[in-house]
Amino acid sequence: MYNLRGYFLFTGLALGLFLLSVACSQKQEQTTTEKGAASEIIDSLVIELEGVDSVSVFDLLKEKHLVEYHPSLQGVFVTAIDSVSGGDGYFWIYAVNDTPAQVACDKYITKNGDTIKWLFRKR
Q1: Fold classification of 32-122 (topology level)
Q2: What is the pLDDT of residues 4-15, one digit of tens each?
């Protein structure tokens, strides 16, 4: 015969994990929308870092996350962070102190007190 205690324990654990995953998904999917002329911008995932004097945005990102990128003459283009890669209209972009950057992430040198946000964006 089935062990009811084990069944209820398993069911409770599964329900708890499901609710936890829903809560985490909702937190990650806090969206930022900006109305543009052609389309709406949606940030589905945000990674926040703290600036350090004389360290590039790219180096700060690599210290704490798994990063895939393409080097170019203009600088580094990040294609994936922690195995979350762009495609289907999504891409990674960064902002420093809530201002979108105008240079590649390896070219932007931070200072103490800067707030860097990597945004997984769909346009």
Answers
A1: Ferric Hydroxamate Uptake Protein; Chain A, domain 1 (2.170.130)
A2: 555 444 444 444
